[in-house]
């Protein structure tokens, strides 16, 4: 940061820290013990839609990397597009394989970043559910290096459970780097993996 940046009050944005994803298994234990939420075994990486040969090569690399995992059943990662035009690479594991799912998400993010698609990466999420059917996602904001909880209300189109989200924010404060700016807690309606 230069002197002019300091004088004008500009700051450098936080650099992504993909290793923050490895805190999710610990956070999952806290979620289960204190709130009854367990992993669904699904997670996803969201990015601005990219086309072209370079992206196809990166997608093949992700498949090859995740195909090497012998413990996986089903396709390693699926590509889908949401109604807002964003692309999602979705990984599915059994609910007890959260560390493996986190490794998958880290590998996808790292491969995208390593192939020059870091600016297109938006977020990653891991899905959770409780015994009553409430859904919760822990969303990692790539450009901020922070997490936030997203809890859509069951049976309501595009309404969220703000009270539950704030409760999870307080609950996870010691496990995850939680995003403090609530205006950055973007809804991820219809996200695959949730």
Shape category = globular
Helix content: 25-40%
What is the number of E strands? 6
Structural class by helix and strand composition: alpha+beta
How would a textbook summarize the main sheet? 6 strands, antiparallel
Average pLDDT level? 86
Unreliable runs: none
Placed side by side, the strands forming the largest sheet appear as 2-3-1-4-5-6
Cα Rg: 17 Å
Q: Per DSSP, what share of the residues sits in E-state strands of 2 or more residues? A: 15-25%
As for the number of domains, it is: 1
Q: In angstroms, what separates the terminal alpha carbons?
A: 39 Å
Number of helices: 5
N-to-C SSE string, H for helix and E for strand? HHEHEEHEEEH
InterPro entries: PspAB-like
Pfam families: PspAB (PF22742)
Characterization of this structure:
This protein is of the alpha+beta class and 194 residues long. The protein has helices spanning 3-8, 24-35, 53-67, 98-117, 162-171; strands spanning 38-48, 78-81, 86-92, 121-129, 135-141, 146-150. Helix content is 32%, strand content 22%. Strands 2-3-1-4-5-6 form a six-stranded antiparallel β-sheet. Helix 3 runs antiparallel to helix 4 (98-117). The radius of gyration is 17 Å and the shape is globular. InterPro entries: PspAB-like (IPR054383). Pfam families: PspAB.
Concise description?
Pfam families: PspAB. Helices cover 32% and strands 22% of the residues. With 194 residues, the protein is α+β, with helices and mostly antiparallel strands.
List the helices and strands and how they pair.
Blueprint: H1 3-8, H2 24-35, E1 38-48, H3 53-67, E2 78-81, E3 86-92, H4 98-117, E4 121-129, E5 135-141, E6 146-150, H5 162-171
Pfam family, one: PspAB
């Amino acid at each position: 940061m230069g002197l002019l940046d300091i004088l004008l009050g500009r700051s450098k944005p936080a650099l992504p820290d993909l290793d923050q994803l490895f805190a999710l298994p610990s956070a999952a234990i806290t979620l289960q013990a204190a709130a009854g939420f367990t992993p669904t075994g699904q997670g996803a990486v969201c990015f601005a839609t990219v086309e072209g040969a370079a992206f196809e090569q990166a997608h093949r690399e992700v498949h090859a990397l995740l195909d090497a995992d012998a413990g996986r059943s089903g396709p390693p990662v699926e590509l889908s597009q949401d109604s807002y035009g964003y692309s999602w690479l979705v990984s599915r594991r059994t609910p007890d394989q959260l560390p493996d799912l986190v490794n998958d998400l880290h590998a996808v993010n790292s491969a995208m970043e390593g192939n020059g698609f870091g600016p297109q990466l938006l977020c990653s999420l891991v899905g959770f559910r409780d015994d009553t059917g409430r859904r919760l996602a822990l969303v990692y904001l790539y450009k901020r290096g922070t997490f936030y909880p997203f809890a859509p209300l069951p049976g309501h189109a595009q309404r969220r459970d703000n009270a539950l989200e704030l409760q999870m924010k307080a609950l996870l404060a010691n496990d995850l780097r939680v995003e403090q700016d609530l205006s950055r807690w973007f809804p991820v309606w219809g996200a695959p993996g949730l």
